[in-house]
Amino acid sequence: MSLPSGVFQQSYGQDMAIFRTKTQWLLLLAFLVLLFLCPLFASDRILTILTIMGISVISVLGLNILTGYCGQISLGQAGFMAAGGYISAVLTAKLGLSFWVALPTAGLGAGIIGIIFGLPSLKIKGFYLIMATVAAHFIIIWVILQFSGITGGANGLSAPRPAIGDFVFRSKGSYFYLTMVITCLAIYCAKNIVRTRVGRAFVAIRDNDLAAEVMGINLWVYKLTAFFLGCVFAGISGSLLVHYYSFASTDHFPFINSVWYLGMLIAGGMGSIAGSIFGVIALKLLDELVTFVGPFLSAVIAPQAAASIGLIMRGLVIALFLIFEPRGLAHRWELIKSYYRHWPFSH
């Protein structure tokens, strides 16, 4: 990453730091202060949008590790979220365990399920792997519906709100704080995972798995590790979503969400942690824009067409990114920063 003129690193630790200058630290602190002050002036609707964004960011981070860094395309992320959400709901509602025990357990449980469904990646890739992950989603949902004595089946299962002692995260503001803290930790963990030896192995497999194997990278181990890590993030995201609604239902995890998570990754930029965040924000804000202009469009065009405008706009935006900005918003952000640092010089 380029640095402002006159800024030099004097050690390997400084060179590997995520935030290298005082300005970057100040901007980070200013953003965090603004973020955590939101409940003081934001409405419940805005807090709900931000909370769902945070939960989506965690899931897309896991998909980014699996698809953006390791190259294993998955359309089963919503199914793995459902697995984590139901594990958390069963542990808290049926067994009476604390949310703080159920949350990591949900992540680990979803990760183990991800390893099972990641086994086909050792023999297949591309379109065939996509179909295998699609099958994983529907198998997970089928299992949830069949074991109705445990999961509640089609009727769903109540899940208690998280609590610390006598304090229960009931309000929109309190759950917003919980979600944002876990989201920030997830971003930090994901950023450091992709900078390790494991992350470099993922990139090598993505770029050319045959060359990576020749260099001594064990494809079996690292592909299954990528599925495990990606599904751990999905499980944590699913657990947060279930406890936010205080209810576990398969309706919260439709297959189309897996498609939109991949679309968020495309819009934000694959192989970039910042891209996961940008993609979620971009498509969620697009949804809100469509919600705002929908009533006006229904007066101009047919109401049936206006009702579908959200799906049309999402599909159109993803297609435009694939054509004109295939590297996503993260790449555009890097170009903007480079332009700012080099201005007024052209290079």
Topology (elements, then pairings):
Blueprint lengths: L11 H5 L5 H15 L1 H4 L2 H26 L7 H17 L5 H20 L8 H20 L1 H4 L5 E2 L4 E2 L2 E2 L3 H22 L3 H11 L1 H6 L4 H27 L1 E2 L6 H14 L4 H28 L2 H5 L1 H16 L3 H15 L5
Antiparallel strand pairs: 1-4, 2-3
Helix pairs in contact: 4-9, 4-10, 4-12, 4-13, 4-14, 5-6, 5-7, 5-12, 6-12, 10-12, 13-14, 13-16, 13-17, 14-16, 14-17
Any overview of this molecule?
- The structure is a single chain.
- The protein is mainly α and 347 residues long.
- 73% of the residues lie in helices and 2% in strands.
- The protein has a two-stranded antiparallel ribbon with strand order 1-4.
- Strand 2 and strand 3 form a beta hairpin.
- Helix 4 crosses helix 13, helix 5 runs parallel beside helix 7 and helix 10 packs across helix 12.
- The chain starts with 11 loop residues before the first helix and ends in a 5-residue tail after the last helix.
What average pLDDT do the residues reach?
Answer: 89
Q: Would you identify the CATH architecture?
A: Orthogonal Bundle
The largest pleated sheet is described as: 2 strands, antiparallel
Number of domains: 1
Q: End-to-end distance, in Å? A: 15 Å
Q: Please indicate the percent range of residues in DSSP E strands (runs of 2 or more).
A: under 5%
Radius of gyration from the alpha-carbon trace, in angstroms = 21 Å
Which terms would index this structure?
347 residues; mainly alpha; two-stranded antiparallel ribbon; ABC transporter involved in vitamin B12 uptake, BtuC; 73% helix; single chain; globular
